[in-house]
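Exercise 7. Given the encoded structure of a 274-residue chain, write a plausible sequence.
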């Protein structure tokens, strides 16, 4: 696959869906070629179970996200390092953390992920744009429990292998899989996959707009058949969490609104207790 390099200044682009996903996939292949994922360091394997943590949670299952930038928001947070943010989320009652490792669009870091892993005793999701088994190879080395796969990238032919093969390979590495979908058709595919968790992204990749009713609409369209559903993007308030929980979401990935808060611990706690 030929890829075109993009730099970090492209974060604030508002491209159409295909172009944006092409940028994400292209940057992933560039990072692979640059050796970003070729790390020698290996920390102690993690044995946390995010799916179980969600099922056993007596309150709202909040997966708080450590992120410092995004294509839609630009720089989100500059004051705290990843470890202090993760500690604050842990104190707030998050049942797991999502830590960005994608370096070009989201300013994520494998090093930050390992620092968080050594500090926080929670299930950790490696949040990246995964297109290759090479990226899955690094996940256990940095202490990840869960990896993200994006159904749309497979449908567009941007990944080296089929989604089924990538899920199987992740499972062989003792990794759980969060399969992200964006519409009813992808939800149907995800239900019949061997993914451990299904993520419904409320962001419209055509416009970058966010509408949390996306989760409601998709869950109304078809029974989730005992799958664990995680709502993603645009969740800001306790009311949002209550609305999505009523719609059938089992857990919630919340990043920007938490990272922008002046008191991360209190913000997470409010969402957990909603």
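Solution.
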């Amino acid at each position: 696959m030929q890829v075109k390099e993009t730099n970090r200044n492209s974060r604030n682009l508002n491209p159409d869906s295909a172009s944006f996903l092409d940028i994400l996939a292209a940057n992933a292949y560039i990072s692979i070629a640059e050796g970003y994922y070729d790390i020698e360091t290996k920390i102690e394997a993690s044995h946390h179970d995010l799916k179980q943590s969600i099922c056993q949670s007596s309150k709202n299952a909040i997966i708080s996200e450590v992120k410092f930038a995004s294509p839609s928001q630009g720089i989100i947070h500059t004051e705290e390092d990843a470890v202090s943010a993760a500690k604050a989320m842990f104190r707030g009652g998050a049942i797991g953390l999502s830590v960005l490792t994608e370096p070009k669009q989201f300013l994520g870091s494998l090093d930050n992920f390992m620092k968080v892993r050594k500090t926080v005793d929670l299930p950790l999701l490696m949040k990246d744009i995964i297109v290759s088994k090479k990226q899955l190879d690094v996940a256990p080395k940095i202490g990840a429990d869960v990896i993200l796969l994006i159904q749309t990238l497979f449908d567009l032919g941007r990944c080296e292998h089929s989604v089924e093969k990538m899920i199987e390979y992740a499972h062989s590495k003792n990794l759980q899989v969060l399969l992200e979908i964006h519409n009813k058709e992808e939800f149907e595919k995800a239900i019949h996959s061997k993914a451990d968790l299904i993520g419904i992204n409320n962001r419209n990749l055509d416009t970058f707009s966010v509408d949390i009713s996306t989760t409601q609409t998709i869950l109304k369209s078809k029974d989730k058949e005992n799958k664990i559903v995680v709502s993603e993007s645009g969740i800001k308030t306790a009311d949002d969490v209550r609305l999505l929980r009523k719609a059938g979401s089992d857990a919630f990935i919340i990043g920007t609104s938490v990272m922008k808060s002046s008191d991360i611990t209190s913000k997470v706690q409010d969402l957990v207790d909603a």
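Remark. Residues 14-40+49-272 form a domain with the TIM Barrel fold (CATH 3.20.20.70). Students should compare their own answers with the one above.
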